[in-house]
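Quick note —
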Amino acid sequence: MNETAEARTPVIQGIGLVKTFGSVVGLDGADFELYPGEVLAVIGDNGAGKSTLIKCLSGAMVPDAGEIRVDGETVAFKRIGDARAAGIETVYQSLAVAPALDIAANIFLGREIRRPGVLGSVFRMLDHGAMQRQAREQLQALGIGTIQSITQAVETLSGGQRQAVAVARAAAFGSKVIILDEPTAALGVRESGQVLKLIRDLRDRGLPVILISHNMPHVFEVADRIHIQRLGRRVAVVTPASTSPSDAVAIMTGALDGSVLPIAR
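Predicted structure written out below.
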């Protein structure tokens, strides 16, 4: 028997989040819920607080007030590592890849596998074979077939392939939530389509995805729900089936009052 939306516990939830930067208000009592098995898009105009919200949820910032819950339990993320330990991985627009390193080394960057026994514990030798094998399995599981060799340097890859490597790294370690910040911003039509397929594949594997994007066609193509942020707080949550892209933009800019709409769950 399927649970109703009201009975489901959000995978990650923000309640009344506040974040200020001197006299500038980044978040003004913002609420947020991501439910299991969904792609939730976060949209908003510049200065709406999207980035601040996501940084609080991913441990990059600590909110001044409010509460963050993971699976219904209150958490206090002090740094990105705390969120990662809770299974929350973020792929930022900058990707944070090391161009000179190969694909496997990038996927395990900062989480390298060491060789068993004394070679790993004392001499700190890396197990390149294990990392290459697991990286290849991760790419195959995500259906990424355009990369010729796992030992390719990332600097030889296209923009879409680099994005795929960053997403594969997040999926390899993100057991709870994947956050994607403008993943198609610098990509062409074909490579954007590949990234959107990756997002759907992540959802189909059971990983809920938070997608931050300015691209309305992409948002409406892959999102199950759309969180609309304005002036530091959530003003509406809609679905692609119930709201047109033009109405979503109108709510985002304040031309349409989103507060009269029920929160889509």
